[in-house]
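Sat 14:20. Reprocessing the chain from the morning session after the first attempt stalled halfway. Input below, unchanged.
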Amino acid sequence: MFNLRGARSNKGRYLLLLGADPLLRERAIVSALRTYPGPVFGMMESAVVNANRVFDHVLAANPYNAKEALEAVEAFERETGFTPDAVVPILELNIHVAMAIAQHYGLPTLAEESLTLARDKHTMKVAFEEAGVPCARHRLFSTLAELEEVAQELTFPVVLKPRDFAGSVGVIKVTDAADLAAAFDHCRASLLEIAPTYDFTDGRYQVEEFVTSTHEVSIEVINYEGRRAVLAVTDKAKGAPPFFTETGQLIPSRESGNTALRELALRACEALLIDRGIAHVEVLMNGPDEQYVVEVAARPGGDGIMDLIDRVYGYNPYDLHIAAYRRTIDELPAIPSEPEGVAAIGFLKAPTGVITEIHDVPAGPGPEIARYVTSKVGDRSRAATSYLGRNGVIEVFEAGTSPADAEAVQDRVTALAQELSSELFTVIEEDIEL
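Finished this time. C-alpha cells:
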C-alpha cells in the first residue's frame, strides 16, 4: 500500500476498479488515475505476488467472489477507515461483485434486474423476444439426452453454447443431429475447464438456430440512468466454423453509419434494463436491413476495443464508463463522425503443440505499433476454439486511412498476425521434457 493520506486521499475514499488488470483492459486504470481525485484500488487473490504497481493499493481477495470481495473491503475499512467512493466493473464476471459492494455502501451500480437478464444467455433472449429485438430461436438443455430431444424443435444447423461466460468458450456449430454428442462433449468440457475459477455450475447450456450472416459487428453503447448513446461500431474478424473464435477487431466498422443498427443496439440495451456504464452489443449482419442480436454484455468490450476507439476518435471511453458509476455525466456524447484513421487488432496463434522456442522478430516497416506475446516456452498451444487459444496480439493504426479501406486494413492485419505467428513460435506436436 502506498501512502494514501496525501493530497489525493479524497478524505478517506477510493475508487475500486475490478477487472482492469488483464492485458488489453489496462487503459481503464489510466482513465481512473486521470479522472478520479483520489486513490485507485484494484483487487486480486494475491496482493503480494504479481501485484499491479499502477494501482495505489491492491485488496487481497477473489475479484469473482462477491462475499470474499466485500469482506476484504470491510476489513480494509476497519483497518484504515477508508471506504469505496465508487465500484466500477470492467469484466463481465466482476459485475455481481461490484454490485454487492456498491449496494452495501449505498453507491451507484447496475440495476439488479439487469444483472439477471444480461448474465444468462437464456433470460437475455427471452427479454429480446418480449421486446421485439431479433435474435435466434433457442432451447435449454442440461444433458446430452435433453439436447437431442430439444434440438428436434429447431432447424439445423444449430449452435451450442454455455448459458454463462463469453469469449467463444464452448461455442460450437453443429450441422447434423449425428454430431450432437461430440459437440456436447466439447461444450461441456470447455465450461468445466473454467468453472472452478468463476464458480460456474454444470448443466447450464443452450442450443440455438444458426443465423446466416455475411459479417458480425459489435456496438459500444453508453447507458446512463435512462439515457443511451452509441459510441462506436467495430468490425469483427472471425475464425472458420465450427468455432466462432474472434481473430481480430477493427474500428471504424463498415456499418458505423448504419442508423438502423445503432437503434437496434440501443433497443437491446433497453430490453435488458442496462442503465449504467458501457455495454457491448454483438450483432450478426445479413445485408444492411437484416440484423440479429447475438448477445449483450453489461460492460465495455474487450479485445482492446476501447483502445481502438481511443486511437480512432481521440478519447478514452473508459472515462465515460467510470463517470457513469460515479454519477458525474452531464451529457451523453454522439458517435464521432470524423475518424482520424483505422485501428485494428489481430491475435497471434501458434500451431497446436508445445512451444519450444519464441524468437525475437524485429518490427518491420509496416503499420504495427504494438506486439504482446502472452505465451512462454513450455506452454501448450491449444486449438483456436476460443480466446484461450491465443498466444499474443498485435495492434495496428493507420492514420488518415479512409473508413472505405477498413476491410483492406483488416486483411493486412490478419495476414501480418499469421506471418508473425509462423516466425515467432517453434512448436512440436507432442509433449516433451524441457
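The chain has a mean pLDDT of 91.
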